[in-house]
Design brief:
The structure is a single chain. The protein is mainly alpha-helical. It has two domains: about 110 residues, no CATH class; about 290 residues, ABC transporter involved in vitamin B12 uptake, BtuC, CATH 1.10.3470. Helix content is about 70%, strand content about 5%. The strands form two sheets. Strands 2-1-3 form a three-stranded mixed beta sheet. A two-stranded antiparallel sheet has the order 4-5. A hairpin with a 3-residue loop joins strand 1 and strand 2. Helix 4 crosses helix 9, helix 10 crosses helix 12 and helix 13 packs parallel to helix 16. It is globular, with a radius of gyration of 24 Å. The N terminus is likely disordered.
């Protein structure tokens, strides 16, 4: 038995070593790519200037030298990852590497020109808003034990409902309210199918997504658009007095539309409720060990209903963001996969609202960056042709694939999610 245990432990150690080697090899490749862009993607003497709309130029850097330095930093991080004795510091090195790569990409894109950095960060927070709301919806559902891939359908339904009722009542706030209600109703359908009838939760979520896509398109073409109810307008940014005047940070955090402020408020509230209240502890128990929760008097299925419905209502705000917060009208399929990217943010954030917020900011940054790149039109090395906009628009989705691939094995969800519960 001892020899068998030693063999298993040796295999595990070998597996970890292999993973470390693969990660290090990947980091070395990243460093080589940065060297390549420094050598062929930036000319000697070019600078990358970063500006603010009020303060003007914040700072500028020599493009080629900065790219070389960041490439060397990536190679250093790759070597340090081989030292397992560093422990948790290796995770810090990983985040530092990610920041270095993102900054290097910004320097390359901006080489020879300038970039409104504070404006792009403002757009990043705005574009991350529906992803954070969708991720919080998923956290409520999956922490209670119900897998929810129907966030996309809930958000799309809420986007349509918000546009229609905002037009009917001539009130954008009424649109948000109805979006919250419609998202909660779609969540109730998912919970009813998953809990009462024990339908496979993946299938239930898929059906809701298909239902939302078909129903919103039919109702928009046949009812809302002909009646002029699909274009109610959108919220204007609201500048918070005094706070919005803070240099750099003021416009980013305190000159946003109301849905962004709602997201930030909910982020604090949801984090507190889930991890610092008895109700949140009971809900998490239903997702981890429902039998134990039941033995201490928790109604598991009722708690799961509440978790799914609350999540759907939060997703409803995310859906309203698209139609009356960003665009000003409803368009078919306007969520464009945001619900699935929100799920990726939830997983990457390890089912924690703050972690999901950080992941959503990463996706929002990628989305804001591809918009900026379409105006800057950076040239591909050697080819000297602009990157096609279709490839730029793929950036958030490609990033989603890489994030999920990196999260596999390290992100472990609630133990009982996806498993129906029957009271004995």
């Amino acid at each position: 038995m001892a020899a068998k245990a030693d063999a298993i432990q040796a295999r595990r150690a070998t597996g970890f070593a292999r993973k470390d080697l693969l990660m290090t090899a990947g980091i070395v490749v990243v460093g080589a790519v940065l060297f390549f862009f420094g050598r062929y993607g930036a000319d000697p003497g070019e600078t990358a200037a970063f500006t603010d709309q009020e303060l003007g130029r914040l700072f500028s850097l020599p493009s080629q030298a900065t790219l070389y330095a960041l490439a060397g930093l990536a190679l250093l991080f790759g070597g340090l990852r081989l030292f397992r004795s560093l422990g948790s510091l290796r995770s810090v090195l990983g985040w530092g590497l990610a920041a270095a790569v993102v900054f290097a990409f910004l320097v390359w894109v901006t080489s020879g020109t300038s970039l409104n950095l504070s404006g792009m960060l403002q757009d990043t927070l705005k574009l991350a808003t529906p992803l954070v709301l969708g991720a919080m919806a998923g956290i409520f559902c999956e922490r209670s034990g119900i897998i929810n891939i129907a966030i996309e359908g809930m958000m799309l339904t809420a986007a349509f409902s918000a546009a229609c009722f905002a037009s009917i009542f001539d009130s954008l706030w009424m649109g948000i309210l109805v979006g919250v209600i419609s998202g909660g109703l779609m969540a109730l359908l998912h919970a009813w199918l998953s809990i009462k009838y024990k339908v496979d939760q993946i299938i239930s979520g898929t059906v809701i997504n298909i239902l939302a896509a078909g129903a919103t398109r039919f109702l928009n073409v046949r009812l809302a658009d002909p009646a002029g109810m699909s274009a109610p307008g959108k919220f204007d940014p609201i500048a918070i007095p005094v706070l919005s005047k803070i240099p750099v940070l003021g416009p980013i955090l305190f000159n946003q539309q109301p849905t962004v402020y709602l997201m930030l408020i909910l982020l604090v509230v949801v984090q507190f409720v889930i991890f610092s209240t008895p109700w949140g502890l009971r809900m998490r128990a239903c997702g981890e060990h429902p039998r134990a929760a039941d033995t201490v008097g928790v109604n598991v299925n009722r708690m799961r209903y509440l978790g799914v419905i609350l999540g759907g209502m939060i997703a409803g705000i995310g859906g309203a963001y698209f139609s009356i917060g960003e665009v000003g009208s409803f368009e078919d399929g306007m969520t464009r996969g945001a619900g699935f990217i929100a799920l990726a943010a939830m997983i990457f954030g390890k089912w924690n609202p703050v972690g999901a917020f950080g992941a959503a900011l990463l996706f929002g940054f990628a989305d804001a960056l591809q918009v900026k790149m379409q105006s800057i039109e950076p040239l591909l090395p050697f080819a000297n042709v602009p990157i096609p906009p279709e490839f730029l628009q793929m950036t958030p989705y490609i990033l989603t694939i890489f994030v999920l691939a990196g999260a596999i094995g390290s992100a472990i969800g609630p133990a009982a999610e996806g498993k129906p519960y029957e009271k004995q």
